[in-house]
Design goal:
Elements (H helix, E strand, L loop, with lengths): L3 E7 L9 E6 L1 H9 L2 H12 L17 H16 L6 E10 L10 E10 L8 E8 L21 H14 L7 E7 L7 H12 L3 E8 L17 E5 L8 H11 L6 H16 L4 E5 L12 H5 L4 E6 L12 E3 L2 E3 L8 H20 L5 E6 L7 E6 L8 E8 L7 E5 L3 E4 L6 E8 L12 E3 L1
Parallel strand pairs: 5-6, 5-7, 7-10, 8-9, 13-19
Antiparallel strand pairs: 1-2, 3-4, 4-6, 8-10, 11-12, 13-14, 14-17, 15-16, 15-18
């Protein structure tokens, strides 16, 4: 078997038998990354722009122009790849009628999310991993549903990433289920994602992670004129939006202000993304979204699901929420000519690596505990096997309290371990590891006796 050695983490000599952990690239995931194609992404963008406008309040009956034609085109692409998926991939347009709200919707609209589901192969594994982008576009006037709104980057880029991940991953099988969705209504107030998140909550979907991609295909910014296609941002909430009042006491007591589910997911996205995609740094931003702004991951976190937003490092506001025009030699508008498709390829590959690694990994370890019966300068951890998936063992993660990322990884085949590091000075977590080396999301221990 081919093995891709990425990095070696060395630990203190006290860890006899655990002195070295080698983090490897899963060959199957590495091969999938190679299939992500910049030309394919560019073709999706040009097809979406060709619909003229994809405004949520545009036509849903015109076969060539508007959001209705665009979502049917996405459905046709999903169904094309479903044909070679061995029956695992199925797709449909999930519609609902959204009533006029007196704000960004003047009259009732037919709201539709185009959804493709790659069913997991393990009947005992009900985990769901979601990748999303919003299909709708807008002009300067968000209520204008007739004039051109190309939406190449906002959010043709995120939708293209969803499509390319579906194309590549539909030919592979995963124990857990992956959902690919292009939502509508983002520009009118996160309507499509709000509808889907509420539906998921009501039907008790076991959503383990949501990767929302919005504006991730351009490499430069206006005003600062920074050009850089080697960095991408991942936004994550700190304190949980869901049930904070019930969790606040434990969060304060254990000092876990930076260890909520979304923040753990962001760390995971950074580690796995940088493992598989060369010349790309995933930059964590400690906010749920950009300053005073919102995105389609927010309805998920508000319903208790781990979700993050992935966005290009340097936004260009000349090409965002702008009518297409030229003023004083400056071209405005969200046009494909301002995109960097190699950058979009890397960002798409980063998404794919994370989806694949998560869906191939076992479930998270259960009942992770830190022993607190006695005052000690060591830390004793214990846990139980995950509810699903075959495990090769577990990683114990460790970092200083001021570190943004996990700094050490210690492998053990056991379900307990005593470490010569004080729980006063470090944070710990435990991951399940599959036989092919895929890690689950980490679980931070709670006090146990």
């Amino acid at each position: 078997m081919r093995k891709y050695i990425l990095t070696i983490l060395l630990f203190a000599g006290a860890f006899t038998g655990h002195a070295q952990v080698t983090v490897e690239r899963d060959p199957e995931i590495a091969d999938m990354i190679k299939e992500v194609n910049a030309d394919s992404l560019q073709s999706y963008i040009h097809s979406m722009v060709a619909f003229g406008t994809r405004s949520t309040v545009s036509s849903v009956t015109d076969r060539r122009r508007g959001i209705g034609a665009a979502r049917e085109w996405v459905l046709a692409k999903f169904n094309q790849w479903a044909a070679s998926s061995g029956g695992r991939l199925t797709a449909f347009v999930d519609t609902t009628t959204y009533a006029a709200d007196g704000r960004r919707v003047k009259a009732p609209v037919n709201l539709g999310n185009t959804v493709a589901t790659l069913k997991g192969t393990d009947p005992n594994d009900n985990r769901i991993f979601i990748i999303s982008g919003h299909l709708d576009s807008r002009r300067t006037d968000v209520m204008d549903g007739t004039a051109d709104a190309p939406g190449a980057n906002d959010d043709g880029s995120g939708s293209a990433a969803v499509l390319e991940c579906a194309r590549v991953m539909s030919r592979h099988a995963f124990p857990a289920t992956i959902v690919f969705v292009t939502v509508s209504g983002e520009e009118q107030g996160l309507l499509g994602s709000g509808y889907m998140a509420k539906k998921a909550k009501g039907q008790n979907w076991n959503i383990a992670a949501v990767l929302n991609n919005d504006i991730m295909g351009s490499n430069n910014s206006n005003e600062t004129n920074i050009i850089d296609n080697t960095r991408v941002r991942v936004f994550s909430e700190g304190l949980p939006a869901y049930d904070l009042d019930k969790q606040a006491k434990q969060i304060r007591q254990l000092g876990l202000e930076n260890d909520g589910a979304a923040r753990q997911l962001a760390r995971y996205v950074k580690e796995v993304g940088q493992r598989y995609v060369d010349n790309l740094e995933v930059v964590m931003v400690y906010r749920n979204d950009r300053f005073l702004r919102g995105g389609d991951h927010s309805p998920y976190v508000e319903n208790g699901f781990p979700a993050v937003r992935i966005t290009e490092m340097n936004e260009n506001y000349n090409h965002q929420h702008q009518d297409v025009r030229t003023e004083k030699g400056v071209v405005y508008g969200d046009l494909a000519e301002f995109m960097d498709f190699e950058y979009l390829r890397k960002n798409t590959a980063m998404n794919l690596a994370n989806l694949a690694n998560l869906a191939k990994a076992p479930g998270m370890p259960q009942e992770v505990r830190v022993e607190v019966r006695n005052l000690t300068n060591g830390t004793q951890l214990s846990w139980k096997a995950p509810a699903n998936g075959k495990v090769r063992g577990y990683y114990i993660l460790m970092r200083e309290t001021t570190s943004a990322v996990w700094e050490k990884k210690i492998f053990t085949p056991l379900t307990e371990m005593k470490l010569p590091y004080s729980k006063d000075n470090y944070f710990f977590a435990v991951q399940s590891v599959s036989e092919s080396g895929n890690e689950s999301l980490p679980v931070v221990p709670v006090p146990g006796r």
